[in-house]
Amino acid sequence: MTLHLATTTAIAGLPDLSAAPARRLASEAEAIAAAHEVAAAIAPITRDHDREGEIPGEQLRLLSESGVTAIAVPKELGGLGASIETIVETVRIISTADGGVGQILQLHNVMIGGILASPDAAYRAFFAPRILAGERFGNALAEVGGKNKLDLRTILSPHDDGSYRLNGRKFYATGSYLAHWLSVGVATPEGGGRGNVIIPRDAPGLTVIDDWRAFGQRNTMSGTVIFEDVHVPAFFSPRGRKPARTALTRAQILHAAIDTGIARGALTAAVDYLRNASRAWIESGEERIVDEPHVIKQVGEFENAVYAAELLLREAARAFDRQLADPDSEALQTLAILAVAHARVQADKASLFVGAHIFDL
Questions:
Q1: The domain 249-360: what is its CATH number?
Q2: Distance between CA 211 and CA 207 in Å, rounded?
Q3: Mean pLDDT throughout 171-182?
Q4: Domain ranges in the chain?
Q5: Would the pLDDT of 162 be above 90?
Q6: Which among 224, 190, 234 has a CA at the least distance from the CA of 2?
Q7: How many CA atoms lie within 13 A of 33 on its CB side?
């Protein structure tokens, strides 16, 4: 069988997806260190106002080359087999430097999580080396016009040769513009079923439009994807697998990691600005603004909110790892779901609290 493959080389007419071979990380401690290195490298790019509006090609190249995008690949497939705790921490660290890049990493981890959990050994074996090579996965799931997110109008139709044809339109397709592969939510005409297919970014008939414009995370490249009679080999067709009760928990905890990272990054930037670029109020009696009591109090409240989010995130990740080690335990499933929900709530509160009120100082 001949498969249409994406590679890490430049593709004519598409963004440059080339990158050096991805680093192979040997331990979870090394993965955390690599995430810190990438965060330190991309932070100056994020702060450069002259580069606002650029697609984050350099940031994603650094991310792929670091090996951080591949840490979820299990050991039996040649990877690190990182814990949820470590995967979550890498997303949080990257998000402290750039929330948009953190969201792309979050989505990539969610997409490959589904692939690596497939019951089809050949399917896992096909994609694992590509993930290890640094190839990234974006999504094309959401649509407009339906009554809810499961009202899909992107249709996967069977073809006479056993393959399929894909037609439809998606929006909010995070990371798709610079991805190597897209995970596409589809409806199947026979039986009205739903599923996901994986297709290469350079597939003929696939158009990705960088039309995402947003306040805040402006470089997630969550634009429009159009499918016009895209050929889908049977190998990439939907896999029949009942979703686990915790299927959405992975995405939720990684979202909490994004928000927690954004909160920490905003607080760090605010304190740095106060220390190095702001002056004390003339009537305060203090030489430095960071010595003013109300400023100390406010920064302390910020730190308390962010610290709580970080603690809840870490504990939720550990609960999730315990559940994955004993997947049939309904008690552990419930514990993981609730722990992640608590972490998500606190992450949202902390990021909104810090993001909205740092300007008061």
A1: 1.20.140.10
A2: 12
A3: 91
A4: 28-136, 140-236, 249-360
A5: no
A6: 234
A7: 8
Cβ(42)–Cβ(66) under 8 Å? no
Report how far apart, in Å, the C-alpha atoms of 107 and of each of 4, 92, 96, 315, 353 are: 23, 13, 16, 21, 25
- pLDDT at position 243 is 77
Length of the chain (residues): 361
What pTM, to 2 d.p., does this model score?
0.92
pLDDT in tens, 200-223: 999 999 999 988 777 667 677 788
In sequence order, the 6+-apart residues with CB closer than 8 A to the CB of 237 are 156, 164, 195, 197
Structural fold of domain 140-236: Butyryl-CoA Dehydrogenase, subunit A; domain 2 (2.40.110)
Residue 191: the pLDDT is 54
Indicate if the pLDDT at residue 345 is higher than 70: yes
**pLDDT surpasses 80 at 189:** no
Q: What is the pLDDT of residue 15?
A: 64
Burial class (CB in 10 A: 0-12, 13-18, 19+), 160: exposed
pLDDT of residue 16: 65
Superfamily classification of domain 28-136: Acyl-CoA dehydrogenase/oxidase, N-terminal domain (1.10.540.10)
Sign (positive or negative) of CA dihedral 62, 210, 131, 243: positive
Check whether 11 has a pLDDT greater than 60.
Answer: no
Torsion of CA 306, 307, 308, 309, to 10 degrees: 50
d(CA 309, CA 320): 16
Model confidence at 6: pLDDT above 50? no
Residue 119 DSSP label: S
The reply to whether domains 28-136 and 249-360 share a CATH topology is no
User: Rg of the Cα trace of the chain?
Assistant: 22
